[in-house]
């Protein structure tokens, strides 16, 4: 193994850990992933009571004796949440339990007033499924261990500390509005055989899941608001034939980009430990967005420490086969099928399609095409201008702040000759700066292309006068020399001239 080096940006309040280069890590070890995704369902009320689930309300205004865990209160299951859980299970090719129960998971956190969480343990509603993702043109099949129902916890706010963590805080506040919001936890089987593509496969899986859940209409899947949260398990082993190594679980990674980065970092950190003869500690770790590292959290509880037992307050869930089949009939076109369909419809080359998938632009292009743009123009804007901006800002493509409808509107203005590609970039700047929609930005910034002959004619005359030698060449028949004059006119008009019309005027004026 070659040299190790410390991470420059590691948080000063966390231990700086050694890592090796990604290539060195992959040369010596085979990574294995396990992904746990929590998704908040978008039911109107909570999992076991009638409280609203609306996001962003004043703290503790959406609570009742059930979700506050007051003695004597009794939970009643939300039928809509069960329906969503079954549909998610079916979309992931899972078997649906004929009979299953809720269990109490006992642990003690202030944001969980009952001191247990209602979850499912050995009887999940959906189990043993699979799905598929594509990375760089290769399909990876991902086994789904289970999808089970549970309730969310409340939220703690630690006040006074520098980091927002409990360390150094003066006091903590609790908000129980989220307590009891229905969650589905989707757990994969160990994902093997990804090799150096492990970080991208992890990202592609979470992205596919987000698209799937959105298509099902069961969640608003906003990672930045925490309605879709990913915990990434990573372990290394010396070879694909070796038994699984000790894994770490990096918690609550809240963007697609961070999923990829967190997996990559853990691979390099664990490889450094193992190749130095150390051991990986089984623990939860926290993703540090700023430094791009993970830091040690609590050591991981074993299932027995939670003392699970069936919740005696809740009846078992026994969905009839008729109901399950009826729900199967409500499944929308799933992301993998949709990808096949649009690949055929859009007519992109294999390479172009691969780039679209890697950039996570399938949805955005679909929506832009639906808003009236051609597939090629939609692809062009999302993969160049918007991908660059997403990258600069460190956000996912769909979170740049420009909507597909706005992209279609900008493209329509380009096609109508109101603006050109160069001006379109300034329109994107304006939209991103919060100056309004594309049309407003064009007006406010005065970006429309100048195609009026009086204004253009004056600029053309000035350019001819300033470049007599070029003008003579054109008079002499060297039409290709017109480019230099067009450039001069465009410069004069700050890029806002109608290039085709300028060319016509030059050639007319110079015979
Ligand atoms: Zn309640």
What are the bound molecules?
zinc ion
Q: State the secondary-structure class.
A: alpha+beta
* Silhouette: elongated
Number of DSSP helical runs: 16
**Fraction of residues in β-strands:** 15-25%
Task: Let me know the average pLDDT.
Answer: 90
Task: Write down how many β-strands occur, each being a DSSP E stretch of 2 or more residues.
Answer: 16
Which residues form runs of ≥5 with pLDDT under 50?
Answer: 1-14
- Radius of gyration, in Å, reads 28 Å
The first-to-last residue Cα distance is: 72 Å
Q: In the residues, how many domains can be counted?
A: 3
Strand order of the largest sheet: 4-7-8-11-3-12-13-14-15
Q: Helix amount, in percent?
A: 25-40%
Description:
The chain is an alpha+beta fold. It folds into three domains: 5-327, no CATH class; 335-445, no CATH class; 453-509. Helix content is 38%, strand content 19%. It has 16 helices and 16 strands. The strands form four sheets. The chain has a nine-stranded mixed β-sheet. Strands 6-5-16 form a three-stranded antiparallel β-sheet, with no helix packed on it. A two-stranded antiparallel sheet has the order 1-2. Helix 1 crosses helix 4. It is elongated and about 95 Å long. Mean pLDDT is 90; it is low at 1-14. The site of zinc ion has 8 residues, from loops.
């Amino acid at each position: 193994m070659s040299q190790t080096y410390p991470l420059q940006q590691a948080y000063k309040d966390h231990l700086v850990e050694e890592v090796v280069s990604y290539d060195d890590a992959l040369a010596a070890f085979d990574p294995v992933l396990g992904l746990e995704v929590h998704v908040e369902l978008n039911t109107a009320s909570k999992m076991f009571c009638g409280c609203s689930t609306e996001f962003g309300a004043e703290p503790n205004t959406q609570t009742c004796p059930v979700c506050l865990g007051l003695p004597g209160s009794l939970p009643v299951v939300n039928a809509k949440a069960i329906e969503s859980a079954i549909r998610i299970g079916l979309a992931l090719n899972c078997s649906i339990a004929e009979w299953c129960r809720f269990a109490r998971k006992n642990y003690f956190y202030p944001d969980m007033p009952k001191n247990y969480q209602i979850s499912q343990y050995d009887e999940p509603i959906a189990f043993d499924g699979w799905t598929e993702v594509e990375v760089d043109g290769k399909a990876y099949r991902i086994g789904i261990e289970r999808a089970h129902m549970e309730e969310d916890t409340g939220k703690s706010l630690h006040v006074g500390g520098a980091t927002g963590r409990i360390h150094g805080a003066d006091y903590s506040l609790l908000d129980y509005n989220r307590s009891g919001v229905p969650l589905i936890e989707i757990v994969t089987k160990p994902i093997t055989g990804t090799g150096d593509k492990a970080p991208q496969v992890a990202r592609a899986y979470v992205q596919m899941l987000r698209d799937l859940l959105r298509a099902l209409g069961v969640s608003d899947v906003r990672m930045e608001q925490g309605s879709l949260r990913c915990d990434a398990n990573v372990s290394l082993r010396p070879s694909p034939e070796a038994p699984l190594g000790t894994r770490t679980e990096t918690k609550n990674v809240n963007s697609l980009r961070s999923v990829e980065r967190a997996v990559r970092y853990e691979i390099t950190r664990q490889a450094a430990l193992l190749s130095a003869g150390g051991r990986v500690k089984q623990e939860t770790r926290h993703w540090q967005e700023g430094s791009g590292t993970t830091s040690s959290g609590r050591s991981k509880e074993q299932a027995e420490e939670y003392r699970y037992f069936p919740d005696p307050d809740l009846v078992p869930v026994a969905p009839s086969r008729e109901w399950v089949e009826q729900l199967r009939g409500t499944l929308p076109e799933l992301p993998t099928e949709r990808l096949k369909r649009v690949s055929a419809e859009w007519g992109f080359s294999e390479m172009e399609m691969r780039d679209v998938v890697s950039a996570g632009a399938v949805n955005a292009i679909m929506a832009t095409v639906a808003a009236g743009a051609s597939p090629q123009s939609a692809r062009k804007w999302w993969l160049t201008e918007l991908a660059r901006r997403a990258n600069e800002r460190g956000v996912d493509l769909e979170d740049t702040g420009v909507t597909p409808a706005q992209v279609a509107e900008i493209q329509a203005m380009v096609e109508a000759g109101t603006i050109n590609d160069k001006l379109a970039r300034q329109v994107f700047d304006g939209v991103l700066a919060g100056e309004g929609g594309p049309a407003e930005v064009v007006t406010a910034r005065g970006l429309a292309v100048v195609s009026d002959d009086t204004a253009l004619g004056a600029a053309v005359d000035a350019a001819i006068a300033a470049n007599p030698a070029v003008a003579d060449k054109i008079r002499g028949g060297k039409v290709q020399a017109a480019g230099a004059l067009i450039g001069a006119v465009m410069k004069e008009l700050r890029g806002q001239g109608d290039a085709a019309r300028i060319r016509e005027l030059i050639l007319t004026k110079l015979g």
